[in-house]
Amino acid sequence: MDFKTADLYDAHGEALRVCEPIFRDFGGQSRFAGPVVPVKCFEDNSVVKSTLAEPGEGRVLVVDAGGSLRCAMLGDLIAASAVEQGWAGVILFGCVRDSVEIGQMPLGVKALASIPRKSQRRGEGQRDIPVTFAGVRFAPGDWVYCDEDGILVSDRALDP
Ligand SMILES: O=C([O-])CC(=O)C(=O)O
Question: ipTM of the assembly?
């Protein structure tokens, strides 16, 4: 995928939502884009696991994990499932673990930090609802564009 977020910003300006720069790149793919699938969950990664086990079709899972720095919502097994299912990436307002392995996968992963502790799995969480973090709103069907410079959100796919 051939784009640069800085060039997209220059072309489209404030028609795009610009995420606050609070994320680090953990995936082996720093440049990724696709339609948004938003989920909301807190210290329970059930909905992350179940969603990334479905066909991804080039979409990006956007996880509002409340910014928790207490546990990891994504590890190497769930990330490997995302790769196998064809997800373009994951934007996680929360933490990962198994960061070395995730860094070798052809998957975009932006998250706050890594931590060894795993999350709960009690089946709690919501899916396909708008979420807001890092100063922007992500709704189902929005498009995200990510690279080393940051994250842009658009309410439609942009012309290449
Ligand atoms: O299973 C989990 O909760 C997270 C994890 O470590 C993995 O995906 O490998």
Answer: 0.92
Q: Containing domain of residue 55, as a range?
A: 5-154
Which value, in Å, is the radius of gyration of the alpha carbons in the chain?
A: 14
User: How do residues 22-64 score in pLDDT, each as one tens digit?
Assistant: 999 999 999 999 999 999 999 999 999 999 999 999 999 999 9
Number of domains forming the structure of the chain: 1
Which H or E run includes 84?
helix 76-84
For residue 39, the domain's CATH number is 3.50.30.40
Q: What is the DSSP letter of 157?
A: P
In ligand 1, the atom with minimum distance to the C-alpha of 118 is: 3
Residue 159 lies in a domain: no
- Identify the residue whose C-alpha is closest to ligand 1 atom 5: 75
pTM for this entry:
0.97
